[in-house]
Amino acid sequence: MSRSQSPTEPQLMHPRNRHQGRYDLKRLSRVTPALQPFLVRTPAGDTSVDFSNPRAVRFLNQALLKADYGIQHWEIPESYLCPPVPGRADYVHGLADLLAGDRDGDIPRGDDVRLFDLGTGANVIYPLLGHTEYGWHFVGSDIDETALRIADSIVRANQLGSAIEVRPQTLRGHLFHGVLRPGDRYAATLCNPPFHASAAEANRSGRDKRRNLAARSDGPPRASRKLPLNFSGRDGELWCQGGEARFVRKMIRESVDFGSQVLWFSSLISKSAHLPGLRAELRKAGAVDVREVAMAQGNKQSRFLAWSFQGNDARRGWWLHAPDRQS
């Protein structure tokens, strides 16, 4: 979740991202006082957040959501994935640009624009950001019933029940089947897939990440810090059998059955090495348009992959009747 605090760092995030440059930690601490104890001095003498501490990351998210998006209530258990708000916002803005490309550059806004969040989790972060920024209506799904109850409580606490719906995925082994209904029409789907292929791999990655983050802050020596196995997240959020590549290949295969109901399918892709194989899978599936949208946050490079089974003319025509078709 960390990003460079250097004032000379180039602005690599999306230009509409609210989180350019340094965090205003005084402002964030005022709206969420619980963040204050987790502020630290960096070796350069600046004030930062102890990103190696999962509690600090959660309180920072609470502060960002409250200060910048008006989300007053956002609480998730420590065991659930705590996503980086700036990075997730970049994905949302990138999707907005993708949709605008089918509308002569006009970004679609309002609750007639429906999106589907595959694996919304307890944090329900994409619906919160997408609705706040663009007024979009969201349906989010997950196989974890407890996560959905937490997500629904966040939605209701912020009085967003008319804008965000959560649906359980009851068909084990399926992603879109079981939750996409015959009358549904979506401008886009989005997904943060499990990155790792095993719990051991996820744990190693979490330990490495926290050691690296701890090394960037003053405070207790790293040897004295307790480093939990996970940075945050549960099975299904951080890992699945076959990892990210297998998960997205399954998305592609299932998306074929819903190509007339969805303009753009999409997924974050953490490893660029997966892209050639996924492009081959998309050619096999018959996708007529495939996009790779680059994103960056500090020194971290990321991207999302988007594909459509509808050509340019069909996508443009779809918007002419979008309020009627997106039931």
UniProtKB/TrEMBL annotation:
Keyword Ubl conjugation: no
Places the protein is found: Cytoplasm
EC number: 2.1.1.181
Chief location category: cytoplasm
Matches recorded under SUPFAM superfamilies: S-adenosyl-L-methionine-dependent methyltransferases
Presence of the UniProt keyword Ribonucleoprotein in the record: no
GO molecular function annotation: 23S rRNA (adenine(1618)-N(6))-methyltransferase activity
InterPro entries: METTL16/RlmF (IPR010286), rRNA_lsu_MeTfrase_F (IPR016909), SAM-dependent_MTases_sf (IPR029063)
Location of region: Disordered: 1-22, 200-229
Family annotation (Gene3D superfamilies): Vaccinia Virus protein VP39
Catalytic reactions of this protein: adenosine(1618) in 23S rRNA + S-adenosyl-L-methionine = N(6)-methyladenosine(1618) in 23S rRNA + S-adenosyl-L-homocysteine + H(+)
The entry's keywords: Cytoplasm, Methyltransferase, rRNA processing, S-adenosyl-L-methionine, Transferase
Functional summary from the UniProt entry: Specifically methylates the adenine in position 1618 of 23S rRNA.
Family, per entry: Belongs to the methyltransferase superfamily. METTL16/RlmF family.
Official protein name in the record: Ribosomal RNA large subunit methyltransferase F
